[in-house]
Amino acid sequence: MRGKLITLEGIDGSGKSTVAGKLQENPAIKAFEPVFTREPTKGTLTGDAVEKAIQSDTDQLAELFLFTADHAEHLAKIVKPALEKGKIVISDRYSDSRYAYQGITLKTHLENPLEWVKNLHRDWTIVPDLTFLFDIRPEVSIQRCGKRGEQSKFEKIEFLRKVREIFLRLAREEPERFIIIDASRSPEYIEKEVTEKILEFLSRN
Ligand SMILES: Nc1ncnc2c1ncn2[C@@H]1O[C@H](COP(=O)(O)OP(=O)(O)O)[C@@H](O)[C@H]1O
Ligand SMILES: Cc1cn([C@H]2C[C@H](O)[C@@H](COP(=O)(O)OP(=O)(O)O)O2)c(=O)[nH]c1=O
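Above: the input record for the complex with adenosine-5'-diphosphate. Below: its predicted structure, written as tokens.
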């Protein structure tokens, strides 16, 4: 049987990586021996290209294709092989990040960037079975990021407000896939809630 794909999404500083780290140490989750992964990927040709792009003044369309190339590589090398082995895959960011972020950055290039970017993925991506949306006000998430955020071109309140709106719209469009998490609470509380929801989902599927 094919495994299950669970993704963690949300704006910068919403606490996805913190919770992903906690889940890796959580005995109830560890029992399933999940594969933990992320986008952009780390230490790969495509992931390095993405990292360079987001640290520079790269054209937004070029950036989209780099993120998407990284997604293709991620799918081919990590996600698909693991799912085919029946594994549970937990990814810190995935395609919805492209829909939400590039859905905004590409507004200067395209009339309807959200639909366009979704269409670009349609025939070859694997849609997650379950997606947690870490929802938080950008004012709070940016403050959390402190110095780290000052270097990032994406960590700006006005921009993240629009990205958050798209994430919430995506969640409204697919309520059976998304679980919205109030990410303003403590990491311990969020870890507990996400763990419970994952266990509940796995017991049903
Ligand atoms: N629930 C939380 N409450 C307060 N601070 C948090 C919480 N979760 C994460 N942080 C802090 O906020 C910053 C961003 O968290 P991180 O997990 O890296 O977010 P993301 O992966 O979503 O960008 C880090 O400094 C982290 O220690
Ligand atoms: C995966 C992905 C990330 N991004 C953005 C989100 C982040 O601002 C940045 C790097 O992602 P990431 O390293 O996950 O940042 P963070 O830990 O702060 O959440 O790239 C996109 O714009 N499109 C994408 O498809």
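Notes for the reader.
The chain has one domain: 4-204.
Residues 12, 17, 39-40, 54, 67, 93, 97-98, 101-102, 152, 154 surround thymidine-5'-diphosphate (ligand 2) (CB under 6 Å).
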